């Protein structure tokens, strides 16, 4: 196993990582850091939890020049939660470089406060696309000197309809720059984007630890759409989850199911893209504090969600590919615990079930319901 020093990370930063109990690089860091330090463009397939944030932050910090009065690095993220997360990690590392200034730029935050911070020299910006373009239109952000550009969670960026904003931002950057694209999945649209923005990229693939097979007991309950809600409530009564996430395909279905569960007296709430930022944060806090037991969520809202104590994941609506399935059920069985993942499958879901089983190279046991054991 290579050390951070061997990868080319400087001693003060290695020391700071140790303070955070980070002593060994992850596979994505081992692959990406030397390539990025060498100035190469990188296209990385890496899920949340693989250490991808440090894979791009460490090379950026090594290469940033505090004497150059310009924004030199831009990290673009699809959600405010992720932008905040990246920004917090960066702030901890910046203890080693107090002369370097960073700023998180996202919606739902006081724009005047952001403007104030932009009056001093900022070297690194972590931003969501919409708010960054707001600043650009006001003339408060100049991106013409950006030499390092990170597109994080590129698949979610496209899924959430940010392509026009991403293209507008990319058009403001100079051509001679280093571009890093990170994505949990690599659909055709992400590859097209990479071909447009990256120059002779190096490819990096790092799968997360395969939680699906080891720590999570999986099962499929066959149902019909009409019976699904009834079966879910029976399963909840029988399994008594400590904390559970229930995944729905759309915001509307999440909202409808949550209302039904609340009507039956379950301690539940919904999490999806239609909620305001402050509402989403409140819901997440209540879930972490165990004031609610069931979180009815869409995939976009649950990206990067890491809550201790989640004992069950329910796929109320089946995911349409194995990577989404792995991502969803990876919300449980964490930190050495075990988890249970239940997928409800209607006859029309058979093709997706086959896809998932092929992807995880395992047949998921079917469970009779009502339980005949």
Helix content: 40-55%
| CATH level 1 name of the largest domain | Alpha Beta
Our Rg estimate from Cα atoms comes to: 22 Å
Order of helices and strands: HHHEHEHEHEHEHHEHEHEHEHEHEHEHEH
- Per CATH, the superfamily of the largest domain is P-loop containing nucleotide triphosphate hydrolases
Beta strands, count: 13
- CATH fold call of the largest domain: Rossmann fold
Count of structural domains: 2
Structural class: alpha/beta
- Biggest sheet descriptor: 7 strands, parallel
CATH architecture of the largest domain: 3-Layer(aba) Sandwich
What is the first-to-last residue Cα distance? 46 Å
Low-confidence stretches: none
The mean pLDDT is 88
How much of the sequence is in beta strands?
15-25%
Strand order of the largest sheet: 3-4-2-5-6-1-7
Shape: globular
Count of DSSP-assigned helices: 17
Describe the structure.
The chain has 373 residues and is α/β, with parallel strands linked by helices. It has 2 domains: 4-206, Rossmann fold (3-Layer(aba) Sandwich), CATH 3.40.50.300; 211-360, P-loop containing nucleotide triphosphate hydrolases (Rossmann fold, 3-Layer(aba) Sandwich). Helix content is 43%, strand content 17%. It is built from 17 helices and 13 strands. The protein has helices at 4-7, 11-19, 27-37, 52-63, 80-93, 111-118, 129-138, 154-159, 163-170, 188-197, 211-214, 225-239, 251-263, 277-288, 299-302, 322-329, 350-360, and strands spanning 42-46, 73-76, 102-105, 124-127, 148-151, 178-183, 202-206, 216-222, 244-247, 268-271, 294-297, 312-315, 339-345. The strands form 2 sheets. The chain has a 7-stranded parallel sheet, sandwiched between helices. Helix 16 (322-329) links the parallel strand 12 and strand 13 (339-345). The longest helix has 15 residues, at 225-239. The mean pLDDT is 88.
């Amino acid at each position: 196993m290579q050390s951070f020093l061997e990868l080319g990370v400087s001693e003060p930063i290695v020391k700071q990582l140790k303070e955070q109990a980070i002593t060994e690089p992850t596979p994505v860091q081992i692959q990406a850091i030397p390539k990025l330090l060498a100035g190469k463009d990188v296209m990385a397939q890496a899920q949340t939890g693989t250490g991808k944030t440090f894979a791009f932050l460490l090379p950026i910090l090594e290469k940033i020049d505090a004497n150059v009065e310009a924004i030199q690095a831009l990290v673009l993220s699809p959600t405010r939660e992720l932008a905040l997360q990246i920004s917090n990690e960066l702030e901890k590392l910046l203890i080693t470089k107090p002369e370097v200034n960073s700023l998180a730029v996202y919606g739902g935050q006081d724009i005047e406060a952001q403007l104030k911070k932009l009056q001093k020299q900022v070297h690194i910006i972590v931003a969501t696309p919409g708010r960054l373009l707001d600043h650009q239109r006001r003339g408060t952000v100049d991106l013409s000197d950006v030499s390092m550009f990170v597109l994080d969670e590129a698949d979610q960026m496209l899924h959430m309809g940010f392509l026009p904003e991403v293209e507008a931002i990319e058009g403001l950057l100079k051509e001679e720059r280093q571009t890093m694209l990170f994505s949990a999945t690599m659909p055709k649209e992400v590859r097209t984007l990479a071909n447009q923005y990256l120059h002779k990229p190096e490819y990096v693939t790092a799968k997360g630890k395969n939680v699906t097979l080891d720590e999570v007991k999986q099962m499929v309950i066959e149902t019909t759409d009409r019976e699904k809600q009834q079966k879910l409530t029976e399963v909840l009564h029988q399994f008594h989850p400590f904390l559970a996430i229930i995944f729905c395909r759309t915001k509307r279905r999440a909202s409808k199911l949550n209302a039904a569960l609340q009507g039956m007296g379950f301690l539940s709430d919904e999490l999806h893209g239609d909620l305001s930022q402050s509402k989403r944060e409140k819901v997440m806090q209540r879930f972490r504090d165990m004031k609610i037991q069931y979180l009815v969520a869409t995939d976009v809202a649950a990206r990067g969600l890491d809550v201790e104590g989640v004992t069950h994941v329910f796929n109320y609506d089946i995911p349409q590919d194995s990577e989404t399935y792995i991502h969803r059920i990876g919300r449980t069985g964490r930190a050495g615990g075990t988890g249970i993942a239940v997928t409800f499958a209607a006859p029309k879901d058979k093709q997706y079930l086959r896809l998932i089983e092929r992807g995880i190279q395992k047949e998921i046991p079917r469970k009779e319901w009502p339980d005949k054991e």
